[in-house]
Amino acid sequence: METQKIPDSFELGPIRPPSEAYSLLIRTTINCPWNRCKFCHIYKGEKFQLRTVADIKQDILAAKTIQDKIKEVAWKSGHPERVAEAATMVLNNPPSQAYFNVALWLYAGGESAFLQDANSLIMRTHELAEVIRFMKQTLPSIKRITSYARSKTAAKKKLDELIELHKAGLSRLHIGLESGYDRLLQYMDKGTTAADHIKGGRNIVESGISLCEYVLLGLGGKQMWREHATETARVLSEINPDFIRVRTLTIKKGMPLYDEVENGNFIRATDEETVEEEKLLIENLNCHSYFVSDHTTNLLQEIEGKLPEDKGKMLATISRFQSLPPEERTNFIVGRRVGIYTCLDDLHDLHKHDVAEQTVKRIRQDNDQGDEKTVYALMERFI
Ligand code: SF4
């Protein structure tokens, strides 16, 4: 019988959540079925496609082929247990992105997989469940399977369907909540309402699938920041997700929001205003979620903790920043945005402080854009 040759290459999408950096990436759909959010550039100009279950399975088999080849290197060296070492060799000189991804995944233990792209939940439930089951059978080291989803889609799924996915092995869904304020969601063309967020989020929590909600700090700009903070806190409190992760708005050409800024319809909040917004958000959260702000776009990445018990500690970090003299706040903001500082404690490092001070001086001498625009330009390097 002729056996079909399994290729050693598979589809890879453009993004995954920061927490899935070491996950095997399997593309169950291509691009975003909504693709209209004003603050998002990732899939603009690209057409959404569902993939067939057969094609996805083929990619899982291709990942297994690469995995087996890397394991074979360890085996042939006489140390089959040294898979991480064999994976490091591949990482140093990967023949393709697919090899790189599998090697990184094996290096980290081979336990997590992330289903790309923007909304895997849009697949027919029984097909997605079949893909998840196949993945677990084919790559039994995988213990945790996660994916992105839209609230609107999660709100439309029946609870039984989400339970079916959880039973198949779907461990966690990452949802871009962005905001809980309806006017802002509408202005940003998010295609989701606060009610959708709550229904979708609660469905997921009830199904047993772990839920991570992403909030976009600064999304309200100067006009809607208060309502953005309080309504987002209200919606999150009603959902009570396992995780709340914040990241800060960055704007680049290609996003519809870029044009809104250019024509004066959207006025960006400064870093200091965004910190005030984050304070209001945290103050109003009434849930038992774990709050994380480790995204590189966030000014205060050290704000982290379990709610409600760590709320005081998180707010104290904000108050520590806000109590700094104005020149020190500018020093910290510029230092963070050029990558000198990672946290407020770095202000005590005299060398770092001096470098940040020189940078502030140079910015003021060299450009006519003003501090704010320079800081925005520095932030945009991260996207
Ligand atoms: S739903 Fe997500 S991926 Fe799609 S356009 Fe909006 S932010 Fe971008």
Low-confidence stretches: none
Listed once per kind, the bound small molecules are:
iron/sulfur cluster
The dominant shape is: globular
Instruction: Quote the average pLDDT.
Output: 94
Strand content: 5-15%
Counted beta strands? 10
**Considering DSSP H and I runs of 4 or more, what fraction of the residues is helical?**
40-55%
- How is the largest sheet built, in terms of strand order? 1-4-5-6-7-8-9-10
Please provide the ordered H/E string of secondary-structure elements: EEEHHHEHEHHEHHEHEHHEEHHHH
Report on the structure:
By secondary structure, this protein is α/β, with parallel strands linked by helices. Helix content is 49%, strand content 12%. It has helices at residues 53-76, 83-92, 97-107, 125-138, 151-156, 159-168, 182-187, 194-207, 221-239, 256-262, 271-284, 311-322, 326-337, 350-366, 370-380; strands spanning 24-27, 29-30, 49-50, 112-116, 144-149, 170-178, 210-217, 243-248, 290-292, 305-306. Strands 1-4-5-6-7-8-9-10 form an 8-stranded mixed β-sheet. A two-stranded antiparallel ribbon has the order 2-3. Strand 4, helix 4 (125-138) and strand 5 form a beta-alpha-beta unit. Helix 9 runs parallel beside helix 11 (271-284). The chain is globular, with a radius of gyration of 22 Å. The relative contact order is 0.09. The structure holds iron/sulfur cluster. Iron/sulfur cluster (SF4) binds at residues 32, 34-37, 40, 42-43, 118, 150, 176.
